[in-house]
Specification:
With 388 residues, this protein is α+β, with helices and mostly antiparallel strands. It has helices spanning 3-8, 141-149, 175-186, 290-304, 316-319, 335-338, 376-387, and strands spanning 17-22, 27-28, 36-44, 50-56, 78-84, 89-103, 112-119, 129-133, 139-140, 155-156, 165-166, 169-173, 189-193, 196-200, 209-213, 222-229, 236-241, 251-255, 265-266, 279-282, 308-315, 328-332, 340-352, 355-364, 366-367.
Length: 388
Amino acid sequence: MGLLDALLDPAIRQPASCLIEVGEDFSDIGLIADLVTEVEVTTGRVEATTGTIIIEDRRKEDGQWIAADSGLFTRWAPIRVSADFHSHVEEVFRGFIVQIKPSYPNSAGETKLELQLQDEGAALDREQMRRVWGEAAPMSDRDILAELIAPLGLSVESGSGEGQSSRSLAQDATPIVFLRERAKANGYDLIFSQGQVYFGPMRLEGDPQPPIMVYAGRSTNCLNLEITDDGQRPDGVRFDHAPREEGAEPLSEKLSPDLPALGRTPVAEEGASLGTPSVWRISREGDETEEELRARAQALVNEHSFRIRANGEIDGSLYGHVLRVGRTVALDGTGDRYGGLYFVDKVAHRFTPDGYSQQFELMRNATGETGGPLGPLSSAASAIASVF
């Protein structure tokens, strides 16, 4: 193999397979794995991670069914799904079996067992709690989270935010509903993953995930891609809060995005020449405090600053990794304007006999590449230039 071939030829990868483990000790399901026809897991930043496993069940001579009567698949059984890349294994999902749906059609050969899955947050949706947090002293949202998830053996992921510090904060809901309300009040992501909970702002800094490669020859791992560049989003959000003196007019405050730009040119710069800024106004909800109102307004304008959306699909085996939500990833091969770093909003993982695919939704708040080479093809081109 010559120098050019060596530089451009990606590592040879075997097709990724799905590893399913159940029970408190996460035991392999053994020969039942051969009966699994489809596994789907959908992950997001603010919604519960859910999944479906479909098994073609078979009846044994004694009348028992191989999967349904195995004792492995019961309500609230812990379950873990991973992608086995042969050189390494990466976890895709961890949670519980929350629903079991066996189906017995006219043909016994078409009998199926369907398992519905939900992440570990499902265990926080079993009991409605009435409690007032911080009665004795103010408590941060992070401290409340840590106390609520401790009985499950979960921990707060490093880098999580403190949230707001409240005194006499009333809870009248299940813990997971309450925590999602607190995440919304802070403009935070709430992600259950690998035994930990991330509760904090968008993580736009730090090392990005391996690049998604478009039109990159043998290094291509992206099967299809569509990008939407939307101009009809607000550049700012305005809200009113109580005046400092009685009888005075309410004070108005305008907030602009305060997140790092994933590119050279923030989206708000395009359209600034029109002279009329795009500003939305929000009002106080219920007994919302001024701190909560400001946090909600900031979260809204930050979310709307991500006007560039990319939807596509990657070959999981060629990508060689599990694409994580709530992290950045480099997109290479789409040119200067749309190439560069994106934030991963959602990922749907799918294992079938045809292979492992990952459908993704990315978003971005700026245009233009900011760094150097993002992927193997660009790196190879740089290496060739240095040789010649």
